[in-house]
Amino acid sequence: MTGPSYLEMTRAAYDTVAADYAELVRGMLADQPFDRAMLAAFAEFVHDGGDGPVADLGCGPGRVTAHLRSLGLSAFGIDLSPEMVAVARRDHPGLRFEVGSMTELDLEDGVLAGIVAWYSIIHTPPELLPTVFAEFHRTLRPGGHLMLAFQVGDERVRLEEAYGHTVSYDVYRLSPDRILGLLREAGFDVQAQLVRERTPSEKQRQAYLMADKRAE
């Protein structure tokens, strides 16, 4: 796979840390009531809309994909990192995981009932987020549901060490208001937003946004 340098950097970093990252986040949702609550609300909206396939984009080791399946959704995962996908397939052999990029999804138009991007838009330069949101819009059916989670802020952070490994990639803290505006411009109606305060182990507040693809 080839692509912009930020994609190559992000892929290389997550290929490097995949195994250790998977161990770190394993079982983490059990201690995150806000995360579980937002994912449960998302699942309820998808069920009410008639169900259908749900893509966990930037799925990493598949923990959120598996949680979505436990909520009764037909969830599958896509991740930029082949090593992350390998770990996800190993840990969740009954689920579907594929290598791919949010900037160019190998999915037909209007095929998805829902998309979850759980702390996965944070590696995309903000000026390129309209391209990502256009792909979300293209692949969701009218009325389809989108859930985003990200760290709150307005800065780029270059990481040179992560999860015990030497790496080099960027993380972007994002303004909820800016993301709300970009979603509306991309053809989404925002249904809910939640910004929670950071925990002692976090450096930033955390944001959750839920939106629907505007009906034609």
TrEMBL record:
Keywords: Methyltransferase, Transferase
Methyltransferase domain span: 54-144
Record GO biological process: methylation
GO MF assignments: methyltransferase activity
UniProt cross-references to Pfam families, sorted A to Z: Methyltransf_25
Cross-referenced CDD domains: AdoMet_MTases
Entry-linked InterPro entries: Methyltransf_25, Methyltransf_Superfamily, SAM-dependent_MTases_sf
Protein name: Class I SAM-dependent DNA methyltransferase
Organism in which the protein naturally occurs: Rhodococcus kronopolitis
Organism placement in taxonomy: Bacteria, Bacillati, Actinomycetota, Actinomycetes, Mycobacteriales
